[in-house]
Amino acid sequence: MLSVVGSAVAADWSDSVFPIKSHEFGTVAVAAKTEFRFPVKNPYSQPMHIQTVRTSCGCTTGIVETEYVAPGETGSVMARFNTGTFRGKRGATLTVVIDKPFYAEARLVVNGYIRSDMVFHPGEIGFGKLNQGDTATQQSTVMYAGRNDWQVVDVVSNHSWLMPSFKQISRGSGRVDYQIGVTVREDAPEGYFQDEIIVITNDHSMPRVPLRVAGQVESLLNISPQSIALGGVKLGQPIVKRLVIRSQEPIMIESIECEGWECDFEKPTAPQKTFLLETTFTAVDATGSQRKPVVIKTSGPRSITAKALLTADIRDQ
Asked: Are residues 190 and 165 in the same domain?
């Protein structure tokens, strides 16, 4: 899986740099957006440069997403299955060429089956940006040509807050169209999501076909600073930091919590869009180097949360 030129140091690097070397796309429909990101880790003390990526088959496009990977960081190489122009069983080898801190080539493998009787339009259900606490619904159409008795029997999701649905919209002359809907519920977590729903049909050989779903859930709350650096502190030593919390609509702050820490603040008495909170952080059950999420929660029927990062070094008494 690896060829190295001109460096004995690089002789056995691939396992630490490429924790995943192969991916199976499974059965996918025509025009379905089908991609996989191979993580690229840099365990060295110098920056890593990904020069290029070559593919053995036009059915797959290789994309260098992170040209330079800093020491200790993780980048990625994207493998995009070209479902719009190829059909049937397909596979490709991606040759990743790295020229710094040494020259090396690693080979990554993808495989999949692009079925010609199913088409998703569009090939991905994309939500763009959503406000946390809101609901939204998007749709795709699956078009099938073949058996007269072909059916979609279910659509399933990996998350309770991602709710799929389906309904038949036409049937005749060996063609069937279904509308596939996905609703993002109000309890969707903050952050970027890229997942898939599984369309289950009555095909005996290939019943499960994935459809990608992606979007960005943005919190209504903005916390500053995002990184709360306390430096070196003793157990039980109170440290006061000012937090600025902004919202798109008037809110009430219900709680500020951080595992292993007491977080004390004077609760506001009226809803506002902007709060300046003098918050006292006291380590009560924390040791050593700390990187903990600080979770701020609002009250009311549309309770929302936002997070910042607390960093500290707990010293001995």
From this structure: yes
